[in-house]
Amino acid sequence: KEPAATIVEMLKDITLYEGEDAVFECRLSRETTQDAQWFLGDVPLQSNEMNEIRVQGTRHTLVLRKVTLEDCSPISFKVGQHTSTA
Questions:
Q1: Which fold has domain 7-81?
Q2: CA–CA separation, 29 and 27 (whole Å)
Q3: Is the CB of residue 32 less than 8 Å from the CB of residue 24?
Q4: How far is CA 5 from the centre of its chain?
């Protein structure tokens, strides 16, 4: 069983204007096969035309395209028992 990954670089709060892209990054202690999940408020996010979810090694990136005021809620990244919120 692989050791659990921990979040070593937490999410940072950002301020944007409507229509801009929001970019959130988290870095884990190690590459992992554990399920990592992004949330907007309580809603799990999937990669689609409005959200881009990328994983490069230990770096997990979420891009919210052309944000609106309705997108103004906490963004969370969860892996195992660990969570980071911005």
A1: Immunoglobulin-like (2.60.40)
A2: 7
A3: no
A4: 15
Domain residue limits, the chain: 7-81
Q: In the chain, what is the greatest distance between 2 CA atoms, to the nearest angstrom? A: 44
Whole-number Å distance between alpha carbons of 56 and 41? 24
Identify the H or E element spanning 38. strand 36-40
Judge contact between 78 and 10, C-beta under 8 A. no
- Under DSSP, the state recorded for 68 is -
Tens place of pLDDT for every residue, the chain, 86 residues? 677 899 999 999 999 999 999 999 999 999 987 889 999 999 999 999 999 999 999 999 999 999 999 888 999 999 999 999 99
